[in-house]
Design goal:
The protein has 290 residues and is of the alpha/beta class. The protein folds into two domains: 2-128 and 170-259, Spore Coat Polysaccharide Biosynthesis Protein SpsA, Chain A, CATH 3.90.550; 261-289, no CATH class. The chain contains eleven helices and 14 strands. Strands 1, 4, 5, 6, 8, 11, 12 and 13 form an eight-stranded mixed beta sheet that branches. It has a two-stranded antiparallel ribbon with strand order 2-3. The longest helix is centred in the last third of the chain and has 17 residues, at 226-242. The radius of gyration is 19 Å and the shape is globular. The two termini are 35 Å apart. GO terms for molecular function: glucose-1-phosphate thymidylyltransferase activity; metal ion binding. It catalyses: dTTP + alpha-D-glucose 1-phosphate + H(+) = dTDP-alpha-D-glucose + diphosphate. Its cofactor is Mg(2+). It holds the Pfam family NTP_transferase.
């Protein structure tokens, strides 16, 4: 399975913060926002990743992330000229996807929780599509999935005025190769965007959509507003300062999953210097050598 991280959009809900910088490059506590969805795809074992950015921000992402070789990965880049919707990612990435399955992660979504890695890895060989559902207080902001009495998904709507359930669909999706064909059929909605919910509806109609409800041990943040960005930052800060583990450390994920070896960690330690991030990588190195 390959991966796509959609890191485009104007970030207008965060203005004036995002006028001069991409939303996905903003700090969430001690690291750039993009590190979090990147670490999630890497947790799933995905090494080939396409970053879709705005034309003006691509150079900054390339400067930050490079070609991925330092993480044992292969990073490629593409441009979304205008924020035409999530479904367009698969049309833009058609050549990159080729004949493979693909996971899409939104660059402003953060996930954390026990068992997350094993849950993600269970979806990489999907026949059809796999999405998730997460209970929220304001489902009208998201795609919403409705279940019947047997907990089987029966409908999906994009940002409905009157949601049929409290279950929002987070920005993490797993698809087989048919997603490219489906994405090409998606027409712009009344909002003028090619909605990801339309693709999910196609899989649902075909009987090929899995929906997993995220348990209470899982946390999800959509950092599209100032309040949610602040909440995510506070969550990461509190958790990291109380525990000995760092959330979203891409070098650690790469090391633990054997994407890279000890020498690459040493190079990263030197790169990050005396920062908190660099000091954390130094502790990983000491634990390994012990």
């Amino acid at each position: 399975m390959k991966g796509i991280i959609l890191a485009g959009g104007s970030g207008s809900r965060l203005y004036p913060i995002t006028i001069a910088v991409s939303k996905q490059l903003l700090p969430v506590y001690d690291k750039p926002m993009i590190y979090y969805p990147l670490s999630v795809l890497m947790l799933a074992g995905i090494k080939e990743i396409l970053f879709i950015t705005t034309p003006q921000d691509q150079e900054s992402f390339q400067k930050l992330l490079g070609d991925g070789s330092q993480l044992g990965c292969d990073f490629q880049y593409a441009v979304q000229e205008k924020p035409n919707g999530l479904a367009e990612a698969f049309v833009i990435g058609e050549k990159f996807i080729g004949d493979d399955k693909v996971a899409l992660a939104l660059g402003d979504n953060i996930f954390h929780g026990n068992g997350l890695g094993s849950l993600l890895r269970s979806k990489v060989d999907i026949d059809g599509a796999a999405i998730f559902a997460y209970p929220v207080k304001d489902p009208q902001r998201y795609g919403v999935v409705e279940f019947d009495e047997n907990n089987k998904a029966i409908s999906i709507e994009e940002k409905p005025k009157e949601p049929r359930s409290k279950y929002a669909v987070p920005g993490l999706y797993f698809y087989d190769n048919n997603v490219v064909k489906f994405a090409k059929k998606v027409k712009p909605s009344v909002r003028g965007e090619k909605e990801i919910s339309t693709i999910n509806q196609m899989y649902l109609k075909a009987g090929k959509l899995e929906v997993g409800v995220m348990t209470r041990g899982m946390s999800w943040f959509d950092t599209g507003t100032v309040e949610s960005l602040d909440d995510a930052t506070e969550f990461i800060r509190v958790l990291q300062n109380r525990q000995s583990e760092m959330i979203g450390c891409v070098e650690e994920v790469a090391f633990l999953h054997n994407f890279i070896k000890k020498n690459e960690i040493k190079v990263a330690v030197k790169k990050y210097g005396k920062s908190k991030y660099g000091e954390y990588l130094q502790t990983i190195l000491r634990e390994y050598e012990r």
